[in-house]
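TL;DR need structure tokens for one chain.
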Amino acid sequence: MKQFKKLALMAALALTTLTASAQHQFTINAKKMGAPVQPTMYGIFFEDINFGADGGLYAEMVENRSFEFPQRLMGWNTYGNVEVKDNAPAFERNPHYVALGDSGHIEKRTGLENRGFFGMGLKQGMKYDFSVYARQNGDGPARIRVELVGSDNQIINQQRININGKDWKKYTATLTSNRTDAKGLMRIFLETAKGADLDHVSLFPQDNWNHLRADLVKDLKDLNPGIFRFPGGCIVEGTDLASRYQWKNSVGPAENRPLNENRWNYTFAHRLYPNYYQTYGLGFYEFFLLSEHIGAEPLPIVSCGLACQFQNPDETAATAHVAVKDLEPYIQDALDLIEFANGSTDTKWGKLRADMGHAAPFNLKFIGVGNEQWGPLYPERLEPFLKAIRAKYPNIKVVGTSGPSPDDLDGKQFSYGWEQMRRLKADLVDEHFYRDQEWFMKNVTRYDNYSRKGPKVFAGEYACHTKGDHQDTATGMNTFEASLCEAAFMTGLERNADVVHMATYAPLFSHVEGWQWRPDLIWMDNLTTVRTPNYYVQQLYGQNPGTNVLSLTEGGKPVTGQDGLCASAVYDKSSQKYIVKIVNTGDADQDIVLNFKGIKSLSAGTVTTLHSNRANDVNTIGSKNTVVPKTTTVEASGNSAKVTVPAKTFAVYKF
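>> reply
TL;DR here they are.
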């Protein structure tokens, strides 16, 4: 019997030892605060791709509202006596308008029809504000009838507007939808023999925020972003310099902001959208207001005088780009932009900001020059920008770029770019990486060995693009697996917060019927939005950034992929909480003991997990909650907590 007890005791000790060895022991040094986590660490990047602005964030429902598309009536169906004119226009920089005249027969009609962007999404009970600039074009007053029409061709609501006088005036009406219809449209009838001229025909839902879609604005605000980069991206450069984004065209009265070609409308032949233009209704003033509203620092990007280098090879440089000696207007645009954002109301551009409704400065701290340029063409143009900005605005931090590639696999562009940014002493260097799962997992340690001196890193565009056959519907989609790899990679950003000061996923928005590039953070149709698994990863980081990095190790080493685990930790001074982020990319659950060195007692906490058993799970319009975060409580004992991180899970612990 004694021998049996001895064997049983030995077996129990062996089992205990095995169990202990199976547990991971993470040590979090709570005694010593590490590098500050910048308030700008996690943010968002906006570019007008995938109908991100007109047809997306900008809530205008009328396509080609000012008749300025190169094909003047693109987006409109007409009937009866309709003519496009440009004599004595209402707006100098948008000179075209339509003249509605007598149809010539009592049983015929004159009018217009607009279906918006992929249809007009109408919501039951929603009020819609219609406006138009109009004047009579005959000897007497005219009357028009405005209708909201359902996809079944039935009238939902209608209002009549009397037009008096030969001077341009703004007329308004409100129409309420009595049902929800994803594919509605708007019609305008001329009801009198006397004609009328119409311009800037507009329709907004009343629930808009500053003319932006309220649901998309909420999606952005809920990310708790620290930085907001805009307006791109490649549209900053333009296919040619004539089509580059020019911020001065995007401010002032919206009715008089000139149309700009969108460089994405013809870039992908297999997803061609010849009706994709920028009305600039969403312009720099609106971007600054949005930054303020969502609590993010604005980071505007300006052209450096280089058109898109992908679309303009080096042999065309002499004609495609601005010569260095001719850069002065581009440099002045950058200086004027800073004045628009920060200048007093007695300056030219500060006064315009005030006239638009914001007398107080926007307190701009950063500006980016160029997008993802490479080679000698870029630093020789960036240098005069740096000199001019630092001479006049020494406190503004300037963001340069290391080019479109995250490494030297495509040549020496990346190393050369960094070498030049160090030489010029740029404040931050913008790195872009659209790569697969393997790359993201290998690069969890990417910034461990970066120099702690010199420019800081801005991971300005990144997203995990899943591998696979391009016929596979999962390829390029916002899969759970892609989001998990991004979460793992971001532990490396957090561990290296002394080097990485900003990071923004890209692209931000995509319309389900108008996409050209994927994956994208937020998908939408005309009625609703979808938060992807990638969105929730960004949100969990953005809502839990902490203020200081804490050392988290196992066996004296950072946790960067051992047994499929990646981890980082921070302390948040405002909430006085310890935050630990753990990613388990493996196929087995992992038992982990979190040991907090330097504190006596740890209170119970919470864990928020993002999990799926299926790598290709996605959230869609029809199934928004396939992958969503879930929060539960976690017990603690003394200065430690025993936790189990399920396979394929991103977990955020807060104590």
